[in-house]
Specification:
single chain; alpha/beta; 5-stranded mixed barrel; 14 helices; globular
Length: 441
């Protein structure tokens, strides 16, 4: 009988893709995916270390996993991903974790599982300069069979002062473009209508072949878009210092490349941007936004921001609010600063903004962004959009939902179409998060 494998995935889309790689690797060893923890022979948590609360949640889950071992001692519990890389021995020392595997060691999971015993937990957190899992065909875990994520690169070389990613995912390396294009073509042939190309900084994707040939991200994006006009192409994440006119031009040229760019700004203060080691200014950021909108007036622009970074003053905070107003983001991921051990900021800058100040500033950013999101959505009332149906609405089984090319969620009455269909909708009204639509006549 096959053994059952259960994985809980936390954090970014990169981790979603990694979990699909793990299912594929262990599937070849006879492990069958299950979504029921109580029947699993192996329980894994694929973890994130970007913020402290993400790690705290995993500590709580380890206790839940341990209860499974209390009734079924043969169950193997593993922590994989970024938290495994960062905390290594500390996880083993709990006595509640059997396997610790970093993001570059998933090929070793079959051997780690074979070697684990109650008295011999296994660990492999070696980082690699070559591993991209390019030859692994992921086992897709999405529920609707519409959208697939494809990792095009691993690691990061930017070393922003607040960020733990370079220490948990290693140096940047780009995957062979042929394997990416083949994977995208394969998922399209299996009925998927959308792929998202993933990297910590897709703009710095650069594959160098053995004969000196090179492929940049705009070239890769164009190749994937050419697979079929019926295949939507998205990507994330961009770095403001690297986003090029060539990329913007390619996006504008292909209708099936979604007009949505996630462009993390982190702060509107030039002083803090320098302290964060972001390598651009607010003026540079605004120029890139202007260039995007010149080429694609309807392009959705979303962002990340950190409130209360080391030494942030009220003036710095106001600079961020001003930039938000000037750009008018469609959506933002907003957090207050969470010091990550081992980063440049943790080593060199005191975390000196009081929690209550961080919280108040974050709430002000959230309130402003809610206004901006509502304004952005109101501008779409009366417009028509091509939407890729993702499935039934969460609140009403007689409604469907799907996203516009600019990544806005639409909800509309429809009992005829199905997941994966393209439909044209007309926007009737909106909330700050959703466009309320009807099928266009």
């Amino acid at each position: 009988m096959s053994k059952k494998l259960y994985i809980e995935t936390y954090g970014c889309q990169m981790n979603v893709g990694d979990s699909e790689v793990i299912f594929s690797i262990l599937g070849k060893e006879g492990y069958e995916r299950t979504e029921r923890i109580e029947e699993a022979d192996v329980i894994l948590a694929n973890t994130c270390s970007v913020r402290d609360n993400a790690e705290q949640r995993i500590w709580g889950r380890i206790e839940v996993f341990h209860k499974q071992k209390a009734t079924r001692p043969e169950v193997v519990v593993g922590i994989v991903g970024c938290m495994a890389e960062r905390l290594k021995d500390k996880l083993i020392e709990t006595g509640k974790v059997d396997i610790v595997a970093g993001p570059d060691s998933y090929r070793s999971l079959p051997q780690l599982l074979a070697d684990v015993t109650p008295d011999s937990p296994q660990i492999n957190v070696l980082l690699s300069h070559e591993e991209t899992y390019a030859d692994i065909v992921p086992l897709r875990t999405d529920r609707n069979g519409v959208s697939a994520v494809i990792s095009i690169m691993r690691g990061c070389n930017n070393v922003c002062s607040y960020c733990v990613v370079p220490y948990t995912r290693g140096a940047e390396r780009s995957r062979d473009p042929k394997t990416i294009i083949d994977e995208a073509a394969d998922v399209f042939s299996k009925g998927y209508k959308e792929v998202t190309l993933l990297g910590q900084n897709v703009d710095s994707y650069l594959w160098k072949g053995p004969d000196g040939e090179q492929v940049t991200f705009p070239q890769l994006l164009e190749s994937v878009a050419r697979i079929s006009p019926d295949l939507r192409v998205r990507f994330a994440t961009n770095h403001p210092k690297d986003i090029s006119d060539e990329l913007i031009s390619v996006m504008a040229r292909y209708e099936n490349i979604c007009e949505h760019i996630h462009l993390p700004v982190q702060s509107g203060s030039d002083r803090l941007l320098e302290k964060m080691r972001r390598r651009y200014t607010s003026a540079w950021y605004l120029e890139r936004v202007a260039r995007i909108r010149e080429a694609m007036p309807g392009c959705g622009i979303t962002t990340d921001v950190i409130a209360g970074f080391c030494s942030e003053t009220e003036e710095d905070h106001q600079d961020t609010l001003r930039l938000f107003r000037e750009v008018g983001f469609d959506y933002a991921y907003m957090f207050y600063y969470s010091e990550r051990p081992g980063t440049l900021a943790a080593r060199h800058y005191p975390d000196d903004v009081p929690l209550e100040v961080k919280t108040r500033r974050l709430n002000e950013i959230i309130a402003l962004q809610n206004e901006l999101s509502l304004e952005s959505n109101r501008r779409d009332i009366g417009k028509k959009f091509k939407v890729l149906v993702e499935g039934p609405s969460k609140k009403n089984s007689e409604e469907l939902c799907g996203r516009t090319g600019s990544n806005k969620m639409c909800v509309f009455p429809d009992t005829v179409h199905r997941s994966g269909d393209y439909v044209t909708v007309e926007v009737l009204s909106c909330t700050s998060a959703t466009l309320i639509c009807r099928l266009a006549e």
